[in-house]
Amino acid sequence: MSASALPAALDWEDGVVVAIDQRALPGALRLLRLETVDQLIDAITSLAVRGAPTLGLAGAYGVALAAHTHDLGTPAGEAALRADAARIAEARPTAVNLAWGVRRALSRLAAGPQGVLAEARVMVAEDAAANRAAAGRAADLVAELAPGRKLRLLTHCNTGRLATAAEGTAIGTILELARRGLVEEVLVDETRPLLQGARLTAWELGAAGVPYRLCVDSAAAAAMDRSMVDCVLVGADRIAVNGDTANKIGTYGLAVAAARHRIPVVVVAPESTWDHELPDGSGIVVEERDAAEVTGFGGTRVAPSDAKAFNPAFDVTPAELITALVSERRTVRPRFGVTEPTSAEIAALL
Ligand code: MRU
């Protein structure tokens, strides 16, 4: 099945969370039926369900699952639900959306299981709307970079329909630019070690007919040096108040290389990815994953049997290396301390 004909990355059907198993793509389109909180947590930790906005929705649907499992009318039932909610929120530490989704669904507990589920569905609709708005705003911004010619873009990890409730953040922006006839080529970082770029982004862009080429992550700086990149477009997992941004490991290196070559770095992410309690990125917890993801490849051990590995899933890019952070509501330019209001906000002032 092509990516454009895909079901939603995550849905609720008759008391069960139905998720695309992102580990199997692009080879197979497999749907997981997650009937218990444990199954949902396993899907999150194994990256069957992944990408910050989708994790937020998984958090909310997870609370709905728990609410349908436990008897909320009893103190023991409510305590069990809250324990499940805490386990879901902690399944992965870096994307702020996960705990946010759990908290928001919990806030509707008084309305019972159906109220919690209704809140999860509202969040899906909101994420889709936020996604489209942010992608449109970011496309306007990026389109100005090279007036009169098509753009060469570089992206990292997967920020598309598998990671969000609509077309995606950075990928949504690329698709919007492509609809405007403004994309010459997208360089897609393969995104070691789990290959979200090679497996998922390449699949989504190919299905949309957007011209792309894959490159190993370490080729990105060389591509910039050869003037093959007009703009780096990425998503985010957590953004601190000052604009420091956690995203897939390798993003910081991209931003360092982009600064060297004076290439803009644009982060596209919904407001739900901003962590208003963190003044800067130093407090962001970066998930460290199993060494086996690095010491092997495609299920085959490649490193010596006693090799250890450093395997952070994310890194933190300092705000000073980011040209703009674009959400559904605003464009923040951290280097200049500027937040641009939306046209609606400007209209309200007039
Ligand atoms: O480990 P993953 O695949 O969940 O990491 C995903 C990313 O880093 C994405 O860039 C981020 O979540 C934004 S998705 C719109």
UniProtKB/TrEMBL annotation:
GO molecular function per UniProt: adenine phosphoribosyltransferase activity; S-methyl-5-thioribose-1-phosphate isomerase activity
GO terms under cellular component: cytoplasm
Active site positions: 237
Pathways involved: Amino-acid biosynthesis; L-methionine biosynthesis via salvage pathway; L-methionine from S-methyl-5-thio-alpha-D-ribose 1-phosphate: step 1/6; Purine metabolism; AMP biosynthesis via salvage pathway; AMP from adenine: step 1/1
Site (Transition state stabilizer): 157
Keywords: Amino-acid biosynthesis, Cytoplasm, Glycosyltransferase, Isomerase, Methionine biosynthesis, Purine salvage, Transferase
UniProt record, GO biological process: adenine salvage; AMP salvage; L-methionine salvage from methylthioadenosine; purine ribonucleoside salvage
EC code: 5.3.1.23, 2.4.2.7
Reactions performed catalytically: AMP + diphosphate = 5-phospho-alpha-D-ribose 1-diphosphate + adenine; 5-(methylsulfanyl)-alpha-D-ribose 1-phosphate = 5-(methylsulfanyl)-D-ribulose 1-phosphate
Complex and partners: Homodimer.
Function, in words: Catalyzes a salvage reaction resulting in the formation of AMP, that is energically less costly than de novo synthesis.
Record-stated family: Belongs to the EIF-2B alpha/beta/delta subunits family. MtnA subfamily. Belongs to the purine/pyrimidine phosphoribosyltransferase family.
Record's protein name: Multifunctional fusion protein
Source species of the chain: Kitasatospora viridis
